[in-house]
Amino acid sequence: MLSAHAMVGRLIIDREEGALKKFQEIAKSADDDYRSLLQLGKAPLFVAIDRPDHSCPAHLVDWAAGSAGSDDIMTVSDKLPSSVVDGSSAEKAWNLVAKCRGVQWALMQLVTENIRLKSWDSLFVEMFPLNRLIGWDNAMIDEVGAVVNDKFCRSIARSYQERFDDYGKSRGCAELIRLLARDSGSVASSVLACVTTSILPCLYAFIGAAAASMMAIRRRTDAALLSYTDRGRVKFNVILGFVFGAVIGLFAGNLSVPTDGTGNALGLAALALLTGYNVPAVSDFLDDLSTRLFRPQERAGTGARVV
Questions:
Q1: How far apart are CA 250 and CA 240, in angstroms?
Q2: Which residues, given as ranges, of the chain have pLDDT below 50?
């Protein structure tokens, strides 16, 4: 289950990053067109520039029904109403409206992926004490929300299209601060890192050690060599497998090799599984590594000479 949860989380994070990048690119292009249209000095003839929400103008002004800045608009699919206007300005306004439609669609996709990401990491964020492992403390967030200036909270509410100070029916400042914190990409990244580098390696190593122990018991049973002491050996191997899985997660930065699609590098979970499956070999490897690093023979020889 945790493997599926981590895989889905990785997919959602990638999708949200892609949606954010696309939104930023389209919004920048629309801003450039908007700036160019404003420099021509004829923007009010084509688009409503005094929009109360300061959003990207996704409609052209309907000259027949109202003036610039009014609520009377025509959609981008309609034709420009006059042939005597400046063709360059009209074309720029038309391109701006088309791009603003793209900005709205990209924003909808970004919000959708953001909602999915919040739903995904809620398993850890809303569960105590697991939320402490990823750096989430509800009590601390409430304390911050209690001391934050209302002006700042109103700006957050405006950004999220939320109500604030609406006769007790709106979100409080603490909830707005919580919403702002949940939008931090580090929350989902922390959850994914905690699952993939700490929890999953231990569990996969445990599975590998349990499988190896069962296979060893089966072989000893077939050979009529099974004894009562094998029970303790099984517990010992399983516990060591779990511990070695944590060690693999500790060294994850050096053991996980990114691939370009052509390599054969093992994933961290698969490496942890093999670690648990062959506990004696990993134990010998760690003994050899410790010997090479600390050289106990040389220290023992030096101590003997001193005596």
A1: 15
A2: 65-85, 167-169, 256-265, 306-307
